[in-house]
Amino acid sequence: MVSKKVIGKYWTKKVALLLSASVLVMNTGCGEAGTPEINSEVKAETDQENTETNSGKNEDNKDVQSSDDEAKSFITAQIYDNGKSIADFDEFVNGEWKEQKSQNSDDSGTFLWDEQEEFDKAIRDILDNTDLDEISEDSGLYKALSIYRHILDTQEYDQRIDSAKRHLQPIENVKSLEDIYKLYQTEEYMMFSKAFRFTISADYNGYHATWFEPDSMMSDIDFYKNLFSEDNADDSVKKEFLTLMDKLGYSEDRTIEMFDNASVVGEMIEDYWKEPVNNIVYFDSASLEKENVSVPVIEILGSLEALGKHKDFVAKENLSDLLNNLYQEKNVEAIRDHLLLGAITRLFTIYGEDVLKASYGVDYSDQACRAIKAYASDVINEAYNEQYLGDFDEQRALEIVEDIKNSYRDIINGTEWLSTHGKELAKHKILTMRVSLGKNEIENDLSDINLTGDLVDDYISLLVSKERFERGQIKKEDEKRQIFNANLFEVNAYFLNRYNALYVSSGILANPYCSKTASFEEMLGYYGTLIAHEYAHSYDPYGINYDWNGWWETWMKEDEEAAYTENQQKIADFFDGLEVEYGRKIDGDLIMNETFADLMAMRCCLKILEQKENPDYDLFFRTYARINAHYITEQGIDSAVADSHLIGKERVNHILGQFDKFYEVYDIDENSPYYVPEDKRLSVF
């Protein structure tokens, strides 16, 4: 076990992520530009440290998955027709698809989104068409689907309003700070509070920790306050919102007062995030007492079983100032109304279509779907796996993971800049890595929910179940920690540095390239390069600072770190300023980490193929090119080059162009604009 410690510069990334929370709320909304996101309903809380890949995959390429002799001979004839070599491998493999895309799309396109669309349709089919009579009423799936369908049935709208008013009344009754503290000690009202918001995630010392992450709600507050301004050109949203508030028992004057009061709290929280600090620290009873904090934070968290064995939590070092300034008797009404607004907006999903559509521009059924996916993710994902992963070749997938681990250990052994001790540490990290395929390592089965038939009660029970489940992870430390809260419904994979583990979504595994009928080269080109890419992130400039336990522990010696940094800089220098489509240029520093992972993954997978008898390199390279195909219009190029990954053509041509085997398989010579001279080819790690 390691001792708890305060970390300064090492916490910079976490601080930046926390500071960006309000920006995320404003920029990832569901509706039109300028409307706030229903952030508490759209997504579950996730570990924001997850390193993710955007590999670009699509169902449209089923026609290229065949590895029969006819297909291969056709490819060979194209390659060597008239003795002309390939100048652009991406165009050779993906040109026809991109031409079709150009005729049917005005937007930036990528294989990833098409695959995501299929995944979303399948989830929606489960929600809409599963026969409840065929599943047990005690199952989590039954409970989730019952709540989802009850949300869509708005015939009991008035009853919902009455039930919601009943849940809001205890907040209305607040008269003192003590009343507020009592509400905080209940699961429901702690969940409604945005000013006193805590989440559970792994920390840099190898534990699950409780993080203080208050939400100012200022994006929502400003949006609704703007409805009452003279500049508001659209009165329909104001009308629908005031209709809802009236039904909940609030006049227009009281509504405006609520937003004004909530702004007092919101602005103080905004200032908390904006204030520059050097450290994120652990607070316990002693440190809070030393800072003269009278708010019973430890008592409140203890009553909710939201503390680990060290009885502390993590926050910015200026937390004491926020607590001492905010929690004063003069601010009771402001805190009450901030809590009240948090409760009202948290329940937006159940109010009905008119107000939701007017306020957020989102279809009611879509919002219901998002809410259930966020709060019943594990049981919905399990149903998807049962229906769609029947052809997934799990055994071979696990074998490829072991092949990748062995390949990386060979790569580490061959490094010249790592000492013998450094190699052993690096290899041990690979040896102890684990993978979770298509599910969280620990799942919330909703067994703690008992349906009552009252939608508001049942919906709140669903939300509370998720928060209770998350708090339960605080007791798990060291080797007992398990992955939870992975983003189950995105077609993607994530390496979690603080677990030294990898999560792969079910949407990846459902791809035909992962099926029992796919060839080894196809599965390696799709799934293998993805896994190897994610594992490579454990050695990128950020991930390399974690050891095999998932603890922040810099393990390289000074000379090793210098050599490592030099290698990384070569990647940035190679790509920096490289001109791509529409005259845009690549930022080498921006793409360095992801490109390092791409290069490591390709090197790793090629070493695996070297050990196979008669490997089909052509099929492997074509598969890699296919899943990275990217059609980009001029309207989409700026966002594409702003991404931390290389855009499609460069991710194909310039990654493959670093490896001798690629030139051996195809007659690509120095006349190609993507040809990389041998002495310029990047040799990572």
Short structural description:
The protein is mainly α.
Provide a descriptive summary of the structure in words:
The protein is mostly helical. The protein is 53% helix and 5% strand. A 4-stranded mixed sheet has the order 1-8-9-7. A two-stranded antiparallel ribbon has the order 2-10. Strand 8 and strand 9 form a beta hairpin. Helix 6 packs across helix 20. The longest helix has 23 residues. The protein is globular and about 75 Å long. The two termini are 30 Å apart. The relative contact order is 0.15. The N terminus is likely disordered.
First-to-last CA distance = 30 Å
Name the overall outline.
globular
Can you tell me the residue ranges where pLDDT is under 50 for at least 5 consecutive residues?
A: 1-83
| Main sheet: strand order | 1-8-9-7
Beta-strand percentage range: 5-15%
List the helices and strands and how they pair.
Blueprint: H1 12-19, H2 21-27, H3 39-42, E1 51-52, H4 69-79, H5 89-104, E2 109-110, H6 111-129, H7 140-152, H8 157-172, H9 177-184, H10 187-192, E3 198-202, E4 208-212, H11 218-227, H12 235-247, H13 252-274, E5 280-283, H14 285-290, H15 297-303, E6 313-316, H16 319-326, H17 332-346, H18 353-360, H19 364-375, H20 377-388, H21 394-413, H22 420-431, E7 434-437, H23 455-472, E8 493-496, E9 501-504, H24 506-509, H25 520-536, H26 558-575, H27 588-610, H28 617-627, E10 630-631, H29 637-641, H30 648-656, H31 660-665
Parallel strand pairs: 7-9
Antiparallel strand pairs: 1-8, 2-10, 3-4, 5-6, 8-9
Helix pairs in contact: 6-20, 7-19, 7-23, 8-17, 11-13, 12-18, 13-16, 13-17, 21-22, 21-25, 21-27, 25-27, 25-28, 26-27
